[in-house]
From TrEMBL:
Substrate binds at residues 64, 95-96. NCBIfam families: asnASE_I (TIGR00519). It comes from the Bacteria. Keywords: Hydrolase. The keyword Hydrolase applies. It holds the Pfam family Asparaginase. This is asparaginase. GO terms for molecular function: asparaginase activity. It comes from Draconibacterium sediminis. The lineage of its organism: Bacteria, Pseudomonadati, Bacteroidota, Bacteroidia, Marinilabiliales. GO terms for biological process: aspartate family amino acid metabolic process. Residues 221-336 form the Asparaginase/glutaminase C-terminal domain. The active site is at residues 19, 95. The keyword Magnesium does not apply.
Length: 347
């Protein structure tokens, strides 16, 4: 008897939009969208994997600046519909809001046991110096990687310029360099060189394998309010008194500090008394919020502001929208904001 042939690895590529999906027209040199059902002709290297690679293209394709919770839900439901048919997923996405979308997806997928790898490019895939081909090829390889039949990286990640990061730990740091993304407060999950070297100790594995839950409820009645020297009292009050407002991501100085102006503290206190959840995030790319370390943050702590610790702004605002979408009470939301749901925060 001959041994039964092993099942081929299958990867689904989802093109949502973005720079990576453009090629130059052979006649006039203008950029036009790739036909992603022909992606293996544009990137023939993919054929060498001997994987089953299928594609889905959003119609219309979205510039990442136009992404919103409806778009995040569409991506999540697309993956959910095809979850059992594929070993891994690669989501092609514009770079500007990729960290927001990856963070949002991480909260939606509970007990995820397959890779969802976001990638894109700074230059279109159809131009000579593109970074898109390497990003796509390696993202596919990572999405397909298994050890003893189990997916090696069962997380929502961002792969860009030879680094694999946890999606909800990542931010876009540069508009021009190929190394557009960075994860300051959490190590890279893998680094691609001659080989792809995985840092297994930093990868999150689900506690309940095979019990996937996808929750797509969001509430977008939130605002990011950045503190700056000379912030105007009327403007500040007007933001906090926005009709329907339920959550505020307060971007503060350093380790969570704000001016000690009485009017500012009182405005925050009044907002919290009305049931608005206020989450304190540092404006710095690295480090964390430690409320009470300085006098300028003691008042926030006493008022009931929640520390985001070392969360990125992208992870914080999407987490707040996600928790508000669950219909929880403010105190319950505060409790979950202080807990790591998908590795977005160091506890």
């Amino acid at each position: 008897m001959t041994a039964r042939a092993a099942k081929k690895t299958s990867i689904l590529i989802i093109y949502t939009g973005g720079t990576i999906g453009m090629v130059q027209d052979a006649k006039n040199g203008a950029l036009k969208p790739v036909k992603f059902d022909k992606i293996q002709e544009v990137v023939p290297e993919l054929k060498k994997f001997d994987f089953i690679i299928k594609t889905i293209t959003f119609n219309p394709a979205l510039d990442s600046s136009n992404m919103n919770p409806i778009s995040w839900i569409k991506i999540a439901k697309t993956i959910e519909r095809h979850y059992n048919a594929y070993d891994g997923f690669v989501v092609l996405h514009g770079t500007d809001t990729m960290a927001y979308t990856a963070s949002a997806l991480s909260y939606m997928f509970e007990n995820l046991d397959k890779p969802i790898i976001f990638t894109g490019s700074q230059l279109p895939i159809g131009v000579i110096r593109t970074d898109g081909k390497e990003n796509l090829i390696t993202a596919v390889e990572i999405a397909a990687e298994k050890v003893q039949g189990e997916c090696l990286v069962p997380e929502v990640c961002i792969y860009f310029d030879f680094k694999l990061y946890r999606g909800n730990r990542t931010l876009k740091r540069d508009a021009e360099l190929f190394s557009a993304f960075r994860s300051v407060n959490y190590p890279a999950l893998a680094v691609a060189g001659i080989d792809i070297k995985y840092s297994i100790e930093f990868i999150h594995y689900p506690e309940n394998k095979g019990i996937l839950k996808v929750n797509t409820d969001f509430d977008d009645n939130v605002v990011i309010l950045k503190i700056f020297p000379g912030i105007n009292q009327n403007v500040f009050n007007s933001v906090l008194n926005t009709p329907g407002l339920k959550g505020v991501v307060l971007e503060t100085f350093g380790s969570g500090n704000v001016p000690t102006s009485r009017w500012l503290i009182n405005a925050i206190k009044r907002a919290i008394k009305r049931g608005i959840v206020v989450l304190n995030v540092t404006q710095c790319q690295g480090g964390k919020v430690v409320m009470g370390q300085y006098q300028t943050s003691v008042e926030l702590l006493n008022a009931g502001v929640v520390s985001a610790k070392d969360m990125t702004t992208e992870a914080a605002v999407t987490k707040l929208m996600f928790l508000l979408g669950q219909g929880l009470k403010p105190e319950e939301i505060k409790m979950y904001l202080n807990k790591s749901l998908r590795g977005e925060i160091s506890e």
